[in-house]
Amino acid sequence: MRRRGFNKLLLGAGLGLPAMNLFRDGVAYAQGRSGGLTAIINPEPPVLTLPLNQQIPVGTIGGKIYESLLDYDFDLNPRPQLAERWEVSDDGLTYRFHLVRNAKWHDGKPFTSADVVFSCNVMLREVHPRARGVFERCESITAPDDHTVVFKLKEPFGPFLLAFETSSAPIAPRHIYEGTDYRKNPANDTPIGTGPFKLKEWRRGSHIHLVANEDYYIKGQPALTEIFYKIIPDGASRSVAMESGQAQLSQFSDIEPFDVPRLAAMPQLKMTTRGYEFFSPVLWYEMNLRRKPFDDIRFRKALRLLLDPKFIVERINFGLGKPATGPIASTTRFYDPNVTIYRTDVAAAKALLDEMGLKPDAGGVRARIRFLVVPFGEFWTRLGEYFRQALKQGGIEVTLDTTDAGGFAEKVSNWDYETTSNMLYQNGDPALGVARSYISSNIRKGVMFTNTQGYSNKEVDDLFARAAVQTSDKERAALYSKVQKILVDDLPVLWMTEQQFPTIHDARLENLIDSAIGVNGTFGRARWA
Q1: Is residue 134 within 8 Å of 432, Cβ to Cβ?
Q2: 318 touches 276 (CB < 8 A)
Q3: In DSSP terms, which residues pair with 88 in a beta bridge?
Q4: Above pLDDT 70, what percent of the chain?
């Protein structure tokens, strides 16, 4: 039976009973009438401490608990969050932030500039790969008083005001983390932030329950009384939960692409792709360049020639997205389409493999490699299966390996893999979201979302460094054009698609998506009509 028919059978013949079974664990989930919200989360996050982990589910839930200095509208213009206003010096070297005066941590301690200095100058520089690259540019980060923070840069850095999105620079409580082993701190199990929601309960394998922060510093927020993030590993069950109303929100890849058009057409639901502008994610297949034969550009080109991004867009994404041409998405600044364009060409791929001496054996196999499947749902499983099928055309045998979310991050960050897939955010500017994946200074073992593939090219390092400090957009564009051409010819990763994500929610929800980070926002203004 087709999946669509199966879902209808569950809802029709069983009157929604199978969906109800998803929630029979002693928990009265929010249904909107109480002012609460039940949302889907998949997979279950390994932690909720956003400064330590920025995986998708951590950012989604952590964005309700933690905050940073700024928020961004859909055009990526900065807006106040923990900073109520700011000034930038004429030379672009000094940024002075004036903080809100009545914010408190969830344990009741006052939020002050000391927390910002500690977070940006100490903790995040050790544990957060994106933040490290930004705040290492600071000559000093100081607090003249309890409600002012001054960042002095060593040299101009054009996108500095884009660096304070919540998952990019989450502010952590100094009184909890200073002088501790950040990754082993007991508070990681009960994260403490300044956001409009705080953690009440985390029942592993079942749900994460957030409740309204009664001491939140913005009057009238949050409007929602609570949020249940229900952990539903099965894709069909997630679709049923949304269709039946047992859940009122899904995001990112929660709903398998083939189910999105059907749910989007239902009158009780709304679908939008807004709220991902800051991220503009690019999907790729990644190779560990430290291992043979991936260190050979001929092998990487052969893999690319065996793959078809259009197939992923049309058959796996069901139209959500477009083929990628390189490291910078066409939806962000400084994109250049004038790069080498790879077409699917099995014969050319085989010729490259022949040139390498990888001749087919009696079974037609030229090489055997392993692929680590991303454990975030059926979409990612299908990406792995497609990779295996596509490479088989060239005589490359792929073995699929599986693990959980924590195991995946551990293996990739510690370079214990051969190939995998990944999707990284652009974060508004190439200096923030793109360079980190290719500059050699960001090859850091044990740290996820860095240059985990191990690519090193001095010219690329130099171009990214120069582009980041230019004050002229014209000069930055020229440098980024050059680096795009080099990277596309080197193929440190195999770029596939510029992803679009669907957010599907109950049509009665208002003010849910109100920023460029969408479902990763605070939900402070979200309410039921």
Answers
A1: yes
A2: no
A3: 95
A4: 94
Assess contact for 7 and 243: CB atoms under 8 A.
Answer: yes
Flag whether pLDDT at 325 surpasses 50. yes
Amino acid identity for residue 9 in this structure: L
Q: Is residue 322 within 8 Å of residue 328, measured between CB atoms?
A: no
How does DSSP classify residue 81?
A: S
Q: How far is CA 321 from the centre of its chain?
A: 16
End-to-end CA distance of the chain: 38
What contacts 118, CB < 8 A, 6 or more positions away?
Answer: 172, 174, 177, 178
pTM of the complete model: 0.79
- Contact between 87 and 96 under an 8 Å Cβ cutoff? The reply is yes
| Element at 60 (helix H, strand E) | helix 56-65
* 159-178 pLDDT tens trace: 999 999 999 999 999 999 99
* Residue carrying the six token digits 């499947």: 373
Is residue 19's pLDDT more than 90? no
Give the integer Cα–Cα distance in Å for 269 and 490.
Answer: 44
Residue 406: helix, strand or coil by DSSP? Answer: helix
Average pLDDT taken over every residue of the chain:
93
Helices (H), 250-402: 260-264, 297-306, 309-311, 346-355, 378-392
Cβ-based neighbour number of residue 131 at 10 Å: 25
Token digits of residue 457: 């090219």
Q: Whats the size of the chain, residue-wise?
A: 529
pLDDT recorded at residue 30: 64
Determine the Cα–Cα distance for residues 127 and 54; give it in Å rounded to an integer. 11
Q: Is-contact 86 151, C-beta < 8 A?
A: no
Distance CA 384, CA 289 (A): 19
pLDDT confidence tier of residue 469, bands split at 50, 70 and 90: very high
Residue 341 pLDDT exceeds 80: yes
CA distance 498 to 321: 5
DSSP for 200-234, written as a single string: EEEETTTEEEEEE-TT-SSTT---SSEEEEEE---
CA dist 309 and 498 (Å) reads 10
- 230, 22 contact by CB (below 8 A): yes
pLDDT in tens, 242-269: 999 999 999 998 998 889 999 999 999 9
